[in-house]
Amino acid sequence: MTRQADRLPFFVYGTLRPGEPNHDAFLRGSVTTEEPARLAGAVLYEGPGYPYLVEEPEGGPVRGELITARPSAYERLLADLDVLEEYAPGDPRNLYERVVREVALLDGATARAWVYVAAPGVAARLRASGTAIGGGDWASSRPRR
User: Fold this and answer.
1) What secondary structure letter does DSSP report for 141?
2) Which of 34, 55, 65, 85 is catalytic?
3) Number of compact structural domains in the chain
4) Residue 144: inside a domain, yes or no?
5) Which residues pair with 68 in a beta bridge?
6) Where is the Gamma-glutamylcyclotransferase AIG2-like domain (predicted)?
7) Does 85 qualify as catalytic in the annotation?
8) pTM of the model
């Protein structure tokens, strides 16, 4: 069980954003707030139908939403998002790592949040030969359905 102090909100920047395919499937009825937010020091890269976030000190900001889970839904949501993002603590086959980062809200406030970032091997491949998404906004970088 997650300690109360570790029940951080989630910064989402891809298919979990409002209007994207995984938003309703994973977040509907499980969140109390969704607020626009930005993450500095990162670059988005194109993936197979979803983006990867790669940490780069000079990158960013990446645009997304800060999602706060309902307390009663937190454990299930955390587990479901770990599966969706193909993350398991310590697994070298991870596509993503779940890390704590500071994100900025539009009113200037900041918040600590869970962020799924590209795992080291994935990040190295993307830096070497990936396609960066200009402007740090995956949703606006592609044609709408």
Assistant:
1) G
2) 85
3) 1
4) no
5) 33
6) 10-139
7) yes
8) 0.92
Closest C-alpha among 46, 56, 143, 88 to residue 13: 46
User: Scanning the structure block, which residue is given the tokens 């979990």?
Assistant: 16
pLDDT (average), residues 36-46: 96
Q: What is the spatial distance between Cα 43 and Cα 136, in angstroms, rounded to a whole number?
A: 6
pLDDT score, position 89: 92
- Which range of residues forms the domain containing residue 101? 4-112
Question: Which one-letter amino acid corresponds to residue 94?
Answer: N
Cα–Cα distance for residue pair 136/21, rounded to 1 Å: 19
Residue 145 lies in a domain: no
- Does the structure show a pLDDT above 90 at 5? no
Q: Is 95's pLDDT higher than 80? A: yes
| CA-wise closest residue to 50 among 26, 78, 25, 21 | 21
* Mean pLDDT value across residues 47-62: 92
Residue 72 counted as domain residue: yes
Dump the DSSP string for 68-121: EE-GGGHHHHHHHHHHHTT--TT-TT-SEEEEEEEEEETTS-EEEEEEEEE-HH
CATH number of the domain residue 104 falls in: 3.10.490.10
